[in-house]
Write a structure and sequence with these properties.
With 374 residues, this protein is α/β, with parallel strands linked by helices. The termini are far apart. It has a single domain (26-207, 252-326, 353-373), classed as 3-Layer(aba) Sandwich (Rossmann fold). A 10-stranded mixed sheet has the order 3-2-1-4-5-12-11-10-7-8, with helices on both faces. The chain is built from 11 helices and 12 strands.
């Protein structure tokens, strides 16, 4: 019996030690010769998304590994992420916990996070920022009119990290990290794009229907054209259980060469994209250029950095696994015929998304190559 109790104790101790190491990866298993990519807000869903993209060769990074970075003060319970990365198929994923905290008035300057941010930057080739809830408007100088802020500490952490990487209008004297490695890769989806904009000194439209189209209710919003809807408002007025929470709408490219020359998207195509947001860029942040817009030109759908070639983001969601495989059939409106996300996209639309991921893969490879030269 004593041997059994000792075995159980050893097993439990080993588990907790592994958890501790997983949360402080740079001090445990980090290997200098490997290429590491950071993942901000490494929830179970975000980790599984990257794993899906890797395993299906959509994100083409054969030898890279990933470090999920997060603040201990975020609302999300990361013990679930720790459990996930301990699975054999998740061996390329690690976690790095940042214990320090900051208030909003200290995030756009050197602060308690500066040293750990720099350490992460020095040991990685790029970073992904994912979707999520609204940023507190006070950070970009507005009163809260339409924002629902559920995780303020996540935003202060990610905004400060992006500011350290890219700099911003708020503090022109600050020298951004990317001045040392201009080829470093930074991208974001949805909130990730909005965070990039706010971190560099831009502002947001807090609610597209109310402020862009003067629509105060879901019923009024649904009278807009489908390409003017950036999420599904049917869910607010219908009890249909098959309604999708998102909308698919078309976008168009600007004169900036990113999509036509870098992504090599078809010039004649207005690709259909998965959209799930009610906020958008208003005033652009420092050194950001618009690469794509909505069909009515009212919403910014893509941005690129003026100086750093591998820094770009989109307002839509190209990362969603259901775009690339058959899944549950859902409806946008109650009268629609249920379809999977995969069915909704045409082959041309899916080709656009795959080319976008090829662009991301090449940008990461370029960053990693540049890093190894130093």
């Amino acid at each position: 019996m004593k041997y059994f109790e000792k075995f159980v104790f050893t097993l439990v101790l080993t588990f907790f030690l592994n958890v501790g190491f997983a949360q402080n990866f740079l001090k445990s298993d980090f290997k200098p010769n490997k290429t590491y990519i950071l993942l901000a807000h490494p929830t179970v869903q975000n980790l599984e998304t990257i794993q899906f993209l890797l395993s299906n060769h959509i994100l083409q990074l054969s030898d890279a590994e990933f470090i999920g970075v997060y603040s201990t003060h975020e609302a999300y319970d990361y013990t679930r992420s720790v459990e996930l990365i301990n699975k054999p198929e998740m061996s390329k994923f690690h976690l790095q916990e940042i214990v320090a905290s900051e208030t909003p008035d200290h995030i756009f300057k050197m602060n308690e996070w500066t040293k750990p941010f720099k350490n992460l930057f020095d040991h990685s080739a790029g970073i992904f920022f994912f979707g999520g809830p609204d940023i507190q408007p006070e950070i970009y100088g507005q009163k809260n009119l339409f924002s629902e802020v559920t995780d303020p500490n996540r935003h202060t952490f990610e905004l400060s990290l992006l500011f350290h990487l890219l700099g911003g209008k708020q503090n022109e004297e600050f020298s951004p990290f990317l001045n040392e490695k201009p080829d470093y890769f930074v991208t974001g989806f949805c909130l990730g794009l909005q965070s990039m904009n706010v971190a560099t000194g831009g502002t947001l439209t807090q609610d597209i229907p109310a402020q862009t189209y003067q629509r105060k209710t879901a019923e009024e919003s649904l009278k807009l054209k489908k390409d003017q809807l950036h999420r599904n408002y049917w869910q607010e007025i219908s009890k249909d259980t098959l309604l999708m929470g998102i909308n698919f709408h078309h976008i168009q490219y600007t004169a900036h060469p990113f999509f036509l020359k870098t992504v090599k998207a078809e010039k004649e195509l207005n690709p259909l994209v998965l959209s799930s947001h009610h906020q958008s860029i208003d005033e652009l942040g420092k050194d950001l250029i618009v690469t794509a817009i909505s069909m009515d030109e009212q919403v910014i759908e893509g941005i690129h950095h003026r100086i750093y070639p591998n820094v770009f983001a989109v307002q839509f969601h190209p990362e969603v696994p259901a775009l690339y495989k058959e899944g549950k059939k859902l409806k946008f409106a109650p009268e629609d015929t249920p379809k999977s996300y995969y069915e909704i996209l045409s082959p041309e639309d899916r080709s656009f998304h795959l080319k976008y991921w090829e662009t991301i893969s090449k940008a990461i490879a370029a960053s990693a190559k540049s890093q190894k030269k130093k």
